[in-house]
Write a structure and sequence with these properties.
0% strand, mainly alpha, Growth Hormone, Chain: A, 6 helices, 143 residues
């Protein structure tokens, strides 16, 4: 996802006037971005939000996560409108650099802090969190 946004940003830098080849490239990359997102990150988030919290706090955690998601969506829509609007910041396709940077920060955070719950029961996840096991060691730690 990061690389598709970087390509869109560089296409935005390269576009001068009405270059239809670059516009088609930008459109194609955005379609590719949407396809990859909808097949990977999009659905995985729902599973992780429901799987990671402790059993006693699951409902509250899901409500909090959805609330933060909705607020983040509103902020993203406000920022995107201002970035693309000619009367606003008028960044055009170069606004993809902003979202690529945000995505890269989230990628690093996910790699370092998001544990892998695959094959773990809810009780095992609770024990691993209680033992303060590092996210990178969740997969190999014996409970």
């Amino acid at each position: 996802l990061f690389f598709t946004l970087v390509v869109v940003g560089f296409c935005g830098l390269a576009s001068q006037g009405n270059n239809s080849a670059i516009q088609w490239t930008i459109g194609s990359m955005l379609l590719l971005f949407t396809f990859i997102y909808n097949c990977t990150v999009g659905p995985v988030c729902y599973a992780l939000v429901a799987e990671m919290p402790s059993t006693r706090l699951r409902q509250k955690t899901v409500v909090l996560a959805r609330s933060v998601f909705q607020i983040g969506g509103m902020l993203a829509n406000i920022l995107t409108t201002r970035q693309l609007n000619p009367d606003g910041w008028n960044w055009g396709p170069c606004s993809a650099f902003f979202w690529a940077g945000t995505g890269f920060v989230m990628l690093v955070w996910s790699f370092l802090r998001l544990p892998e719950p695959k094959g773990r029961t809810y009780a095992e996840l609770d024990v691993l969190f209680e033992m303060r096991v590092s996210a990178r060691l969740f997969r190999t730690t014996v409970v």
